[in-house]
From TrEMBL:
Database matches in InterPro entries: Amidase, Amidase_dom, AS_sf
Entry GO MF terms: catalytic activity
Coiled coil: none
Name used for this protein in its record: Amidase
Domain annotation Amidase: ranges: 25-421
Length: 442
């Protein structure tokens, strides 16, 4: 089910005309017809192929000169079904009437269109980007979850249905599924990608993220989506970053298998010249988790207040439980949750400065994707970084005993997204070389 796909190479070939856009889209549609009935990444659409042909024709008319074509010319993009997209219904993975979620197109979707992208379609989301899963399956093993809540987007990229897809993250909905499906997931600093035009889960920690198959591909998209992106010329002289390991109860949440793989990853990086500094952090991880989750529940309840009483029977159990808990959160507790975001960020960045750490590194998940589709897996390895609003990326970093992917999560200081991508790219190459050995020698 997995198909290696280079966004960077494909985009360059489409812009130059070396790759015919109509032929490429036809290939994508054939792949979709073959694979998606098994992984269920995209929502159904009548005459998708005809619409995409019309979109390509419009792009060719708009950009007849290859030299003037924008970065993502004719690239098909999957859009999580919590984003509003002109011409598409929005359901947010729910059974509620789509009319409730109508509104202006999300700015980030419009940014992708302005860069030449065409919309492959809406991708499956868990119900309201929380824990009730859809039908999407992990392309590495159809018996396992792809993770959530951006389930369809991650599966579509991993399976080669599109080289780019949008997701969101309120706890771990970009980083976790990317790790489970063996691709790159990037969640920029809180606020760097606008969150308007979303059926939001919790705006205090609502992040837009996206999926590609490499860090280079991720870097191609970042200037298009991220506010005030600084080019390579603005980065300091190239050097090897110091890696911080967040020791303590947070790290202990990972499984023995994930921790063993993580230590192997650190050994690879140390052998390549990286310095690793182990620092005790998150001694109050349970308090952080409670602050984050209670704040999320309160904001979910506020979002759904206009709909809950009338459509209560249409909500699924875990979503309903979260909304009911959110109704019990006081204004004071919610304010404490919001204030805690900046406090945690300050603590983490102070620890980075004191220990001369450039990046935090840790397992992206507690282990490989769980078997079955009833759960999307735990996001607890992602929660504190999301709560603090720090930029995070996961890259493929190994295989579990069951041959499912494991990811390495790398986290930078706030607003250092540019440096994070620049530093992680060579690290990903080092880990990929070992991953290749694991895949073809076991």
């Amino acid at each position: 089910m997995i198909l290696p796909t280079s966004l960077t190479a494909t985009a360059a070939a489409l812009r130059s005309g070396q790759l015919d856009a109509f032929a490429y889209i036809a290939t994508i549609c054939e792949r979709l017809d073959e694979v998606d009935p098994q992984i269920h990444a995209l929502l159904p659409e009548q005459d998708r192929r005809g619409r995409l042909k019309a979109d390509i024709a419009a792009l060719q008319k708009r950009f007849p000169d290859p030299g003037s074509r924008p970065a993502l010319y004719a690239i098909p993009v999957g859009i999580k079904d919590t984003f509003r997209v002109d011409g598409f219904a929005t359901r947010a993975g729910s059974r509620l009437p789509e009319e409730l979620f109508a509104g202006a197109e999300a700015s980030c979707v419009s940014m992708l269109k302005a860069a030449g992208a065409c919309i492959l379609g809406k991708t499956v989301s868990t119900e309201f980007a929380y824990f009730e899963p859809g039908e999407t399956r992990n392309p590495h093993n159809l018996k396992h979850t792809p993770g959530g809540s951006s389930s369809g987007s991650v599966a579509a990229v991993a399976a080669g249905l599109c080289p780019l897809a949008l997701g969101t993250q309120v706890i771990g909905s970009t980083i976790r599924p990317a790790a489970f499906c063996g691709i790159v997931g990037f969640k920029p600093t809180y606020g760097r990608i606008p969150i308007d035009g979303l059926v939001q889960c919790a705006d205090s920690v609502e992040h837009v993220g996206y999926f590609t198959q490499s860090v280079a591909d991720c870097s191609l998209v970042a200037p298009i989506l991220c506010r005030d992106w600084r080019g390579e010329d603005s980065l300091p002289l190239e050097r090897v970053p110091v890696l911080g390991v967040p020791e303590g109860p947070y790290l202990a949440q990972a499984s023995d298998e994930a921790l063993t793989a993580f230590e192997d990853q650190l050994t690879l990086l140390k052998n390549a010249g990286y310095r690793v500094c182990r620092v005790s952090v998150f001694p109050d991880i349970e308090r952080i988790k409670r602050l984050h989750m209670r704040m999320v529940f309160a904001e979910m309840a506020q979002v759904h207040a206009p709909w809950l009483a009338r459509y209560k029977t249409l909500y699924r159990p875990r979503t309903l439980a979260a909304l009911h808990e959110g109704q019990t959160v006081s204004d004071e507790e919610r304010a404490q949750g919001r204030a805690g975001r900046a406090l945690l960020r300050e603590v983490l960045e102070a620890q980075m400065k004191e220990a001369d750490i450039d990046l935090w590194v840790c397992p992206a998940t507690q282990g490989p994707a769980p078997e079955g589709l009833a759960s999307t897996g735990s996001p607890m390895m992602n929660l504190p970084w999301t709560y603090a609003g720090l930029p995070a990326i996961t890259v493929p970093a190994g295989l579990a005993a069951n041959k499912l992917p494991l990811g390495l999560q790398c986290v930078g200081a706030a607003m250092t997204d540019e440096q994070l991508l620049a530093w992680v790219a060579p690290m990903a190459d080092i880990l990929a070389s070992q991953l290749y050995i694991e895949e073809y020698t076991t």
